[in-house]
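User: Please fill in residues for this 715-position structure.
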């Protein structure tokens, strides 16, 4: 895809006007506008990469004009950056650092922070000094795929010189920080002289094996120079030729194959993680795009995989190289691991490949750590990017968002690599430079060290999530960091709840009384996220009428939804739990799983006229106990909530009014008719489910949430 010039005079003026209302200067408004243009183009920048700046001034406390560098701050993404994302730093003080012969990373960060105009601002970019030393007003930096394909060549300097002439400076690879800033300004000043002698203007700077800088007197000039330089690189590359693609031999749909293989892989990762003291749970993002398939199906994949990352910035997301697995086995329909020897063989080969990867990573760490003085702390050795022939690239992450980032960067690596191979040889930074970046404290800071939410890394399914109680449950789990999937017969309601749970939450239409639809829903879940951790089987409905005269159809309908639907869900969930490694006898290495059921007080304290509902719920309670009994040895926990009088689709306003009138009390007294005298809310039920999920040594339990009802007490 060709890099597009998306500058618009009208949009630029609109940005100036809009930000003026926030007391933002024209310089910073235009800086924000073009930074967003760059950040929203994945051919240029991915997920927090790149940086931009503008040299301007601000008014001090005494009314004096202070020259400042407004440079991208840590934690901001160019695609969504706001003016606050370019914190102002005293420019002259930064430029004075050029007189030093050396500056440690810690001192550089301290100097930049101490010169912030607003001390509460985020840390300026680690490349802030490079921006400060360059004389141009506006400076842009990207990791454009097309430029990297040329900059990662063995003879990259010659290629870039032939392509750009004297319009760009060329900087050999140097680790970001003070030394890069010094090398860049030295190259810039020499190139500026050579450009003047050639009668051209210096427009940019190629950092070999790293990226591209452009600069200009205006935001538009710097932006358009960036676009033009990238376009020239694209033209130099031409169309990437078709590589060695053997025809796919597996005819099964990608979703079905992914739903079978990814949980197996997730379980294998968990078992290895347990041995190597690494986090066990990972979410997955599968990319089966033409680009990803072109890469994973090529006969050169093994060789390419060890060449390195497209730009050193990517190593903290993808590790130095991907894990390569065997192609998927031939399957006849939807087969389970327990009954399919070819799946067992594939899983065995995957575990061997994973262990080989881990050993190789540990050798890499020990080799490079010894080189730098043996003072680095070992990061976990698990891969972050996995290539599976005929299936695609799989990104791993602590969350769905992070897995998506990994997959995006994996595809950028694939695009860079194949473009580079089409005109020469992909040869990025060497192992030592890769290690320096991966274990650089300033780069590691980008990943954040904050404490993870209690249910981060967990995939949680909530059935009946479109209703009041179900929606509250879904939101409660989302607040605890879980990746939430909402199932409901009303697809629109499921989608609405999912949106409230976050951008990565998934809403699916599913009739839980239909076993085939449940199977399809769980297939989708496994393919989307790689597996499953918790199911809250919440969906239910009440049929009323005296049991002696109740039509059989009502009783059967109640059992279909209030018992058999839960069984459909539980069976589908347990199948995934087992695929994730619950066959192992070492339960400490197993991911396990949880089945949480919404059982009404009717199971213990039946009421007149609700036999169809209460009997089915009593059977559901027995079902929970049976699963707890049979699946405990596989680390699958099964618990339930016993709730009463919760406003929902079951207990709507009309029913509340009717029951209160029948008892001769107010609606408030009816809803608060318990030992605590307080109405129990849907959020109380939701929080109780979360509490059960966080009780690792509890199974077979029934937790009462009804404000106190003696007749419904378990004991």
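Assistant: Residues filled in for all 715 positions:
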């Amino acid at each position: 895809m060709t890099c597009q010039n998306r500058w618009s005079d009208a949009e630029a003026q609109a940005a100036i006007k809009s930000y003026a209302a926030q007391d933002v200067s024209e310089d910073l408004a235009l800086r924000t506008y073009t930074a967003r243009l760059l950040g929203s183009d994945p051919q240029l920048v991915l997920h927090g990469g790149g940086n931009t700046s503008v040299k301007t001034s601000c008014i001090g406390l005494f009314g004096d004009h202070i020259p400042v560098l407004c440079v991208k701050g840590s934690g901001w993404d160019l695609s969504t950056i706001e003016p606050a994302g370019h914190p102002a730093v005293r420019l002259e003080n930064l430029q004075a650092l050029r007189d030093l012969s050396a500056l440690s990373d810690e001192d550089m960060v301290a100097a930049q922070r101490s010169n912030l105009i607003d001390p509460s601002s985020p840390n300026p970019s680690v490349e802030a000094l490079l921006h400060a030393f360059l004389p141009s007003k506006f400076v842009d930096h990207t990791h454009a795929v097309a430029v990297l394909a040329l900059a990662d060549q063995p003879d990259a300097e010659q290629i870039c010189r032939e392509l750009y002439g004297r319009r760009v400076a060329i900087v050999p690879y140097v680790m970001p920080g003070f030394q890069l800033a010094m090398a860049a300004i030295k190259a810039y000043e020499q190139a500026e002289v050579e450009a003047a002698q050639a009668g051209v203007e210096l427009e940019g700077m190629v950092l070999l094996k790293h990226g591209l800088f452009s600069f200009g007197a205006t935001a538009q000039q710097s932006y358009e120079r960036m676009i033009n330089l990238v376009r020239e690189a694209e033209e130099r590359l031409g169309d990437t030729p078709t590589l060695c693609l053997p025809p796919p031999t597996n005819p099964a749909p990608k979703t079905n194959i992914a739903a079978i293989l990814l949980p197996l892989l997730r379980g294998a990762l968990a078992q290895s993680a347990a041995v190597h003291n690494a986090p066990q749970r990972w979410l997955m993002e599968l990319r089966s795009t033409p680009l990803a398939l072109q890469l994973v199906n090529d006969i050169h994949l093994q060789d390419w995989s060890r060449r390195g990352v497209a730009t050193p910035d990517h190593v903290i997301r993808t590790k130095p190289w991907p894990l390569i697995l065997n192609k998927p086995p031939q399957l006849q329909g939807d087969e389970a691991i327990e009954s399919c020897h070819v799946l067992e063989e594939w899983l065995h080969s995957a575990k061997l490949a994973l262990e080989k990867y881990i050993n190789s990573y540990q050798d890499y760490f020990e080799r490079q750590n010894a080189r730098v003085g043996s003072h680095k702390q070992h990061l976990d050795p698990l891969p972050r990017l996995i290539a599976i022939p005929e299936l695609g690239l799989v990104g791993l992450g602590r969350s769905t968002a992070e897995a998506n980032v990994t997959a995006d960067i994996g595809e950028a690596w694939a695009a860079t690599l194949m473009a580079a191979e089409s005109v020469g040889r992909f040869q990025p930074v060497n192992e030592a430079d890769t290690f320096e970046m991966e274990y650089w404290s300033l780069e590691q800071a980008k990943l954040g060290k904050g404490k993870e939410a209690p249910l981060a890394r967990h995939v949680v399914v909530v059935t009946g999530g479109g209703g009041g109680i179900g929606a509250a449950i879904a939101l409660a789990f989302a607040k605890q960091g879980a990746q939430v999937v909402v199932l409901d017969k009303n697809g629109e309601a499921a989608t609405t709840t999912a949106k409230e749970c976050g951008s990565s939450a998934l809403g699916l239409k599913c009739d839980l009384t239909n076993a085939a639809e449940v199977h399809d829903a769980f297939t989708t879940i496994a393919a989307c996220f790689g597996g499953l951790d918790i199911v809250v089987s919440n969906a239910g409905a009440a049929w009323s009428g005296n049991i002696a005269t109740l039509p059989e159809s009502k009783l059967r309908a109640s059992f279909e939804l209030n018992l058999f639907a839960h069984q459909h869900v539980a069976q589908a969930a347990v199948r995934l739990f087992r695929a994730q490694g619950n066959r192992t006898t070492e339960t400490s290495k197993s991911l396990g799983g949880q089945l949480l059921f919404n059982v009404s007080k009717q199971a213990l304290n039946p009421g007149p006229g609700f036999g169809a509902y209460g009997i089915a719920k009593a059977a559901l309670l027995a079902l929970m106990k049976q699963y707890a009994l049979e699946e405990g040895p596989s680390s699958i926990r099964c618990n339930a909530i016993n709730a009463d009088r919760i406003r929902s689709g079951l207990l709507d306003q009309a029913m509340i009014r009717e029951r209160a009138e029948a008892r001769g009390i107010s609606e408030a007294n009816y809803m608060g008719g318990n030992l605590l005298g307080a109405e129990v809310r849907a959020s109380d039920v939701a929080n109780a489910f979360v509490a059960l999920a966080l009780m690792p040594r509890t199974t077979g339990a029934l937790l009462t949430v009804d404000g106190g009802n003696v007749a419904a007490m378990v004991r």
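For context: Residues 241-247 have pLDDT under 50 and may be disordered.
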